[in-house]
Amino acid sequence: MCFSHLWRRGPKIQVEEWGINASQRSKTSPTQHPVPYLPPSHQPLRTQASGSIHSQTPVDTGSSRDQDRAPYPLSIQPQPSNTSVPSTNVQSRPPRDSSEQNLGTTFLANASNFHMENLNYTSNHYAAQKQGNVGWEYLLKAMSTNALHNSMARFDPPKCDANTRVELIHEISTWIEDRNAPTQFLCMTGAAGSGKSALQQTVAEGCVAKGILAASFFFNTADNTRNNVSTIIPTLAYQLGQKSAALRQMIGVAVENDAVIFDQSLKTQIEKLILDPVSRLPPSELASLPYAILIDGLDECTKERDQRALLCAIHDTFLHRRSIFRIFLASRPELAIFEALEPGGHLHEIVHPIRLSDDYDATSDIRLTVRRNFTEIGLRRRWEHAWFTEEDVEAIVAAASGQYIYAATVIRYVSEPRRSPVERLRTILASQSGTDHGTKPFALLDLLYTLVLTTAKEGYEAIDNRHDFLLILRVYLAINAVNLNLCISRQDKLLGLEEGTYESILCDLRSLLVALPNSGHGPGGISRIQIKVYHKSFLDYLNAPERSGSLHIPIPRSIDYISRSCFRSIDSYSLEDIRGGTTLSDADFKVRYKELDLGLLDCAGLLWCSVLRTRTPESDDVAATSFVQFGTSGLEKIHAWVMHPLVHWISTPPWISDGNPRYEFVDLWEKHVGRVFLDRIKVRQVIFIAR
């Protein structure tokens, strides 16, 4: 299934752009806009003969802004006194001062009885006024102060604990400072809660200390000023202007020259507000200009279309023009960035990739962070005795599964100054073992999982509502848990789903899990695609209805779905299909096995028994009911499958490591199902017959 049409749907957010509400917006018609001010190179040329005027270039009056989005008129320059300016009621235009109001051209006031020939008059008043101050003011209105690395809106941002992530920070910092490196773009992808923002903040502060941070932008899905791309280029340009007075003036003039610049493409904005002004700096000033640009959380830009647009703009401008800047971007591996970095993507092989969740083990750093913070809690309380044990630390580290978000959430929860750290730690440990469901210590973590899961669900349902998104996801995870190494594409066929359904279900969940080729290979050398869940706490969240709320799918429901799917697959074969082939040679039997796809029968039989191994009393009832409904003919087919005399002719399938599926079925039945399940079948059979 193709990825290209699977757009991630973000929440629809009504935003008053530019900070101007409907009552303040301009009602100016297109004909009411003033004539644009022309730079000196485009001013009409006055000849030396009697003051006649010939225009060197056509005067472009410009097109009107959309009336509902106009924060300022097309012309934001003072108008020459000899230009006729229609009246306008645009309120956001800067007022003229008294000196400008009296700038009519007057020669030899009150003079008389004199004669003048070949007068050549050129006024540079307005050109001299063009210092970019007006444009800079409009840039300030278009940027997001909340997105800065040191913004008050991000007070107490996440940072790497001392002496943690040392090697990774060194790798990133070394890459940034190596201006001769073949790549200009570092993309760090990682699961939700893997510490991407903490790394970005730590690296940003390190770049500030070294004097090399040119600009930064931290996306945030809950902040309307930085959950879209409309403010990112003005924000980056503002920070560059703060580093150089010459850049500030040129950026301001660029806005004055094109008052609709903030409505144009990201590529155009980068060129006009950043790259073109930078290219005009003197070599000495260019050499000392900071060059590190940091962008965090691209996945928190709510529109996938905008995510793609920014990646393309970076490629087409900063990278294509080989600018002086080195860009460090961090994001969850959502569809836009995933496709860009994959083979065939426009960023493949031209970026320096860091796969945070796949290539770096943070276990030792998490242990150090937990131990240090727990120790500091005791010091703040002035406790002389140890209030936690190494076993407590190891329990937190084990539950974290290499992801910082769990440990960070635990530390925040335990550190609450108005609560007992001891009691709160006990609550955490009890919740891990499932013995205490009375509190919700992971509210922040649950909020993140709810956000990711809801967004993925809405995105899937917007393009395909044939299946229950949450149920299919839980079924995939349940099959994954029984460790059959069953390829997920095979699962789709077994479950009666369309080919490639797993791609649609999982495409917006890459921050929580990923479909990866297994170390082994299937028939013909084809890799087996299986699900890897990055974070154990995500499974804990899904299994706890008090945490996942309306997103919770009970385990019996997923087992019922798997059981019915397995029985349906088994029932699709006739008894002759299952029993036949006993007189065939080994080679012919293998051909028959492949033609009838008897491997699917093996999958269905063993998967059903494997799922029952993890049963509960509730799931037993559900599975027993499905089994009874399966009927006598179904039981006969399972019996024929298990008792086939030629099973040893078929080599061990690639998706099972211990032996033949039929032998495994018998073994599982005897060890984990057996008499208890048969007794339940008898009970359900009586109820079924009575109904």
Automatic annotation (TrEMBL):
Domain of life (superkingdom): Eukaryota
Domain Nephrocystin 3-like N-terminal: 171-332
Keyword field: Repeat
Polar residues bias locations: 21-32, 44-62, 76-92
Disordered: annotated segments: 18-102
Pfam families per record: NPHP3_N
InterPro entries assigned: NPHP3-like_N, P-loop_NTPase
Gene3D superfamilies reported in the protein's UniProt record: P-loop containing nucleotide triphosphate hydrolases
Protein name: Nephrocystin 3-like N-terminal domain-containing protein
